[in-house]
Structures are given as structure tokens and as C-alpha cells.
Amino acid sequence: MNIVLLGAPGAGKGTQAALLVEKYNTPHISTGDMLRAAVKEGTELGKKAKTYMDAGDLVPDDVIIGLVTERLQNPDTENGFILDGFPRTSAQAVALDAELSKLERPLDAALLIDVDAEVIVKRLTSRRMCKECGYIGSVADASCPKCGGEMYQRDDDNEATVRNRLDVYEKSTSPLIDYYRGCELLVSIDGDRDPQVVFADVEKALGL
Ligand code: AMP
Fold first, then answer.
1. If you measure from the C-alpha of residue 53 to the centroid of ligand 1, how many angstroms do you get, rounded to a whole number?
2. Is 163 a residue of the active site?
3. What is the pTM of this model?
4. Cα dihedral: 173, 177, 183, 187 (round 10)
5. 99-151 pLDDT per residue, tens
6. Which parts of the chain fold into alpha helices (H)?
7. Ligand 1 pocket by C-beta < 6 Å: which residues?
8. β-pair partners for 143
9. 113 by DSSP, 3-state: which?
10. Rounded Cα–Cα distance for residues 145 and 13 (Å)
11. Catalytic site residue 165?
12. Is 127 tagged catalytic?
């Protein structure tokens, strides 16, 4: 399966990707995770990206496109991939199409996890992540239910930054919904339900 996950920040793309990886072992390419790892390691990329990320703005297209293009060269993606958080702009979508057509690996679907903006604000401001394994939980998790690691709040999950990320999503990313509808690749799923219920629909939609 070659798929892109679409949806606002906090819609549950990371959670659905984790469930797909657990069951189908498909490589998960999350540009947000790649950037956070670069920030943690203090690389040049990380230093450049951090200012944008902390403000909830998008990292420039050329940086992100280079990162994903390089990642897609890895042979582990030959049997499929789940792109999460990419593409986020029309330029990224066009660059992805060009790269996938060069690799002769067209997309099978663009899966939209659809959740109302106010639900997202509540979800993101109470979201916590595991420092060790990246598990996505909530403020109710004192420690990671998966590995016992320490849970933390992402720097960009405060309310002001969340609202900016939602604005950026509306302006720059939501036009991709029409783009993929036009390519007859769009599948839309109601994401305001229990993650396992959403996952059952994801599997059905992907014919798994
Ligand atoms: P995410 O974990 O997907 O919510 O991404 C966190 C942050 O990383 C975003 O708010 C952006 O600053 C940056 N980022 C992740 N993916 C992209 C992308 N495809 N294009 C531009 N910036 C991105």
C-alpha cells in the first residue's frame, strides 16, 4: 500500500499510522517525527526547522521535499509506505507525484481523517507523547502505557500554536483534499470516534 494520510494536526494520523505499522509492518514516514528527531540531535536541519515548528508554521518546501525524496530512495519503501504529514502544500503534492512516477510507484489512496477544528484544539492541548517510544497519549497518562517512558507535551501543542497550525492547515493543506479528489484517490473517514473504530474503517477503505 502506497498511501498518504491527510487531516488537520491532531486528527489522528499518527495514531492510525501506528496501528497500520503494527498490523501490516508498512514503513511509516512522518515528516514531523523526522524533524523532531533532527531537532533533538541538533543537526543543521533541526536548527533550521525548530523556529518554524515552534511557531506552528510550515518548514520551507525545498527542505521537506528533499527530506522525503531521500527517504523514498530507501529500499524498505519498495513494498509500500505510509506518508504522514506530507504533502502539506500543493508544491509538495506535485513534487511527490513527480518522484513517485519516476520510481514507478503510484499512490493507492489519500486517506483523509476528518475531525472538527474545536475537537482538535481540545485534543492537542491535552495530548502527551512518550519521550522513549513516541506513543501518543493524553494528559491522563502519568507514564507511557506501552513502555513506561516519560510522557511530555510537544512544544507546539500549546493553544496559541495549535490555533496557528489549524490556520496554516486551512490555508495551505486543505486544498489538497480537492487535489486528491480530482485524482480519484481521496477516501474520507470520520476521525471523531474511538481510534479502533476509525481503524476498522481505514482497513475497509484500503481494502485490507
Ligand atoms: P506534525 O508532527 O506533522 O504535526 O508536524 C510538526 C511540525 O513540523 C509542523 O507544524 C511543521 O512546522 C513541520 N512539518 C512537518 N511536516 C511538514 C511538511 N510536510 N511541510 C512543512 N512543514 C512540516
1. 7
2. no
3. 0.91
4. 130
5. 999 999 999 999 999 999 999 999 999 999 999 999 999 999 999 999 999 99
6. 13-24, 31-41, 44-55, 61-72, 90-102, 117-125, 159-168, 175-182, 195-205
7. 9, 31-32, 35, 52-53, 56-59, 64, 85-86, 88, 92, 156, 165
8. 150
9. strand
10. 19
11. yes
12. yes
